Amino acid sequence: MALRAKVIYDFLSENQGELSVQEGEILTLVSEQDVEGWLEGSNSRGVRGLVPATYVEILGHDAALNSYNTSAEPRYSNVPAGGFAQLENISKPPPVGLTSNTAPLQQHHNNYKQHSQGSDDDWDDDWDDSSTVADEPGTVGGRYRDSEGNGTSTYRVTTHTGQRGNAMQTKSSATVGKNLNRFSTFVKSGGEAFVLGEASGFVKDGDKICVVMGPYGPEWQENPYPFSCTIDDPTKQTKFKGMKSYISYKLTPTHTPNPVSRRYKHFDWLYARLAERFPVISVPHLPEKQATGRFEEDFISKRRKGLIWWMNHMTSHPVLSKCDVFQHFLTCTDEKAWKQGKRKAEKDELVGANFFLTISTPPAPLDFQEVESKIDGFKTFTKRMEDSTMQLNATINEFARKQMGGFKKEYQKVGMSFKALSQAFEMDQQTYSSGLNHGISFTGDAYEAIGEYFYEQPSKDLDPIMDLLALYQGHLANFPDVIHVQKGALTKVKESQKHVEEGKMDRAQANGINDRCNIISCATLAEIQHFHHIRVRDFKAQMQHYLQQQITFYKKITGKLEEALEKYDNL
Amino acid sequence: MALRAKVIYDFLSENQGELSVQEGEILTLVSEQDVEGWLEGSNSRGVRGLVPATYVEILGHDAALNSYNTSAEPRYSNVPAGGFAQLENISKPPPVGLTSNTAPLQQHHNNYKQHSQGSDDDWDDDWDDSSTVADEPGTVGGRYRDSEGNGTSTYRVTTHTGQRGNAMQTKSSATVGKNLNRFSTFVKSGGEAFVLGEASGFVKDGDKICVVMGPYGPEWQENPYPFSCTIDDPTKQTKFKGMKSYISYKLTPTHTPNPVSRRYKHFDWLYARLAERFPVISVPHLPEKQATGRFEEDFISKRRKGLIWWMNHMTSHPVLSKCDVFQHFLTCTDEKAWKQGKRKAEKDELVGANFFLTISTPPAPLDFQEVESKIDGFKTFTKRMEDSTMQLNATINEFARKQMGGFKKEYQKVGMSFKALSQAFEMDQQTYSSGLNHGISFTGDAYEAIGEYFYEQPSKDLDPIMDLLALYQGHLANFPDVIHVQKGALTKVKESQKHVEEGKMDRAQANGINDRCNIISCATLAEIQHFHHIRVRDFKAQMQHYLQQQITFYKKITGKLEEALEKYDNL
């Protein structure tokens, strides 16, 4: 008898081996026993893969179907339910329903998703090449030298102590153990491989990423050529004789002469490149996807605002703003060049573990104890910030709802009652009361208008705050992984020290681990510092914008009431 | 077996023969059959009297107690439920629950109540004399000439055609029939007796009430010496060594040198005198009584405001403001003189039917058809005004409740969320963010303060509107009776014309009825005109006050927000 399970939350496969499933779907499981929170099974079409154990409810063997635990509660409680608590475990996001009780929050995005499946933008069209380089044989290593003879110095960097190439990948792990959890961010990000000295790649001067010592600790070297980029004119385009349609946006960077036209799927592709490229950088999340109604004006406007926020965070980031793939995305206007650049980015060797090869650190190594304390402090901070932004988001979402519903209704009811009174008064047959009747009627109209003001206001002040919070909730969702990589590196340092003490590792090898942990720590602290800087900048700007809008709003109400008051002046 | 009935609404006896009862009380009925909507019965103390049939629920004979119809629905539907519909029937007010679904409306007062029973102010103390003149023998007629030799010309007026004295009271009614409904306002007010020519009394020059022809029809001659009166310093007084306590108010009229001290019961006594004295004048209702907590600050402040409104309407009325008993109330500072004036007022002959003797009309008689159309128009107007004030009252009562509850809560929740965010931000260990944190914290405080503003506001703007509406709802409750008297008179005119055509009445007698109907019509139209004038004045003033308060309110909010915005200026 087959073991069946019912899917209780939608799950989108984000890594090879995972199985995308939809709520309500029935799966056939290989075993009831989960492995590190994952169950193996196959769907009705026979496709096999892993699904998170918390996303399904085991129904039992065929015969027992429908008679065994049909509640929506996940059967397993040994799988973390979200937030920092799961940091040391798996990085897979929990079902949204478990972490957040607020409705419109941006869905948790995962740093490491590859091409999105079920995206609202189709990918398979002639402008883009849907095949990825990873599928093509014989393209590993040394590409840049071959394809680009542009004279920049390119050199091979390796972290192998006295060894070259990838052949020794499993060897050094015999000394300092590899993490057996293949879903660990530390492993997936390449952090582990880098610390253990397994990363290797050619780094051009242009790829170098500098961490410098600033007044508050390590920070990314500022982009010497800062720029910004506007996103305008969302335009509906069609192709295949109208069979397919999509929205394109005009992107106008300040540092290039020509605007470019990009679709959401291009952003999405870029996001995927950046996420795999920069393990300890919090790549801003794209505005959430929406399966239906994506050509509706509200949605387009909302998405555009989200993309503007996203772009703002991209261009503000000293590392992200400079990177090749982003520049290609912003500047390429030629179709052929686009394809070439796309292919190049997808073949990029300096992703994951190799990314760390590109980082240059300040001369003095960091005090790891101090680093650990700073990271722990930041962890506490992000937890608090996560809680309070969640609360603020819920509160202002409710506030917006109330203003658009109850508040509007109350003011309009008052308006209508005044108008009813003025209508009753108009029956008094007295000429001397017509001025009063008009005044009361105008007052009624004024309150109806004020009700409308309340209805319109949230889109002007609360919505931008919610957009801000959504963006930051994205960052806060990224940081557990960022921190996890640094923590993993630090654990390796401690392990190596122990091994040296026990004579199981030579000091040179341990020093190498130390140095590489220093690189990861510098990058992590620089990223944290950057986060604080943009956070202060963004929240200041948004609080000011919010208060300015609120002031304008109450002044508008006051003006309307003053207008009404004047009507009584010459009665 | 005794027939029992359960009282379902409180009823306060307002006329001799009626029985005050309380909700839940069990009565023993004489008969299950009501007479014109009244049932006779006795309470548990054996006191016997009439109660409105709709106020009780008949339980059946003792044995059937509790097994017979225990719903709260009145058993009889042949008794009018309120408003104009009952005009031609009885004038007894229906239970409040049946006419009004809004909570804080002033309870319906009856024009013709005598000493209030169950009042919250005790009456039986040494300062006041609780015995009424009606109980004393030998005090009918011609008193003024005997007791007051002050030289004003006093003359006897009678409406009897060619006859003098009261002997003929029943005679003329043989021709134009008397209304058999002893509860009819037309009968109770003395309107019927006057129209039928049965009223008789001595009218001094000072008692004359003039109706003049104004631009909009008949109106009361203006008071040539207008004045106003403030009500201040509600002070708790005790007597009987602290056994009894009461609140006294300082009344300061502008036309006398000395303020007087009055209690609510004095207002109540005055109200009763005025209500029986002026059948076609809408005597403003006193602020509602409250049995418990009458020394609480809120209640005292609310009552004082109500008394101020009442006083304003009294001093604004050309007839009421000048009348002896009101002047006595406003000016008498001597205890002995007070008693004397009180006794005199209670002995006043010119009440009810005789009141109409005091009215002098414009020379040209009114066109009754036009009068009827005006009265009907006013009836429609009052109905519409009653509905719309009821609606407005309900709306703003709810609006006030929302502002003090939901609105306050929403703003304060936003405030608290901002503060929580600033507290989270304070954990960031970054010195450069402390300004922002302070700004957000201040913004949080500002929203909490704004929540408080919303809580406080209704007492400043909506409460006065509700006070205004309560006062006008009192007037609107008076007008059915006022109109009823005029309608009754008009009916008598029509009857008399028919009788003349049929040769049953001589033309002189019919002309007398015509003339007296003209007097009632003039007074009624003058009162309606006065009502419209003060209505326009009061609503204009209150709408202005309301809007001014609202403007101040939103400006205060704006100011608070501007203060918050400034905190972000120098970050």
Report on the architecture of this protein.
2 copies of one chain form a homodimer. Chain A has 12 helices and 13 strands. Chain A has helices at 96-99, 143-147, 185-188, 191-195, 264-277, 297-316, 324-331, 335-346, 368-425, 434-456, 462-501, 507-566, and strands at 3-7, 26-29, 38-42, 48-52, 56-61, 154-158, 200-204, 209-214, 217-220, 229-239, 244-253, 260-263, 359-360. In chain A, strand 10 and strand 11 form a beta hairpin. Chain A is elongated and about 105 Å long. Mean pLDDT of chain A is 79; it is low at 63-155 and 160-174. At the A-B interface, helix 9, helix 10 and helix 12 of A face helix 9, helix 10 and helix 12 of B. Chains A, B: Residues 227-337 form the PX domain.
Brief rundown of the structure:
The structure is a homodimer of 571-residue chains. Chain A has 571 residues and is α+β, with helices and mostly antiparallel strands. The first copy, chain A, has helices at 96-99, 143-147, 185-188, 191-195, 264-277, 297-316, 324-331, 335-346, 368-425, 434-456, 462-501, 507-566, and strands spanning 3-7, 26-29, 38-42, 48-52, 56-61, 154-158, 200-204, 209-214, 217-220, 229-239, 244-253, 260-263, 359-360.
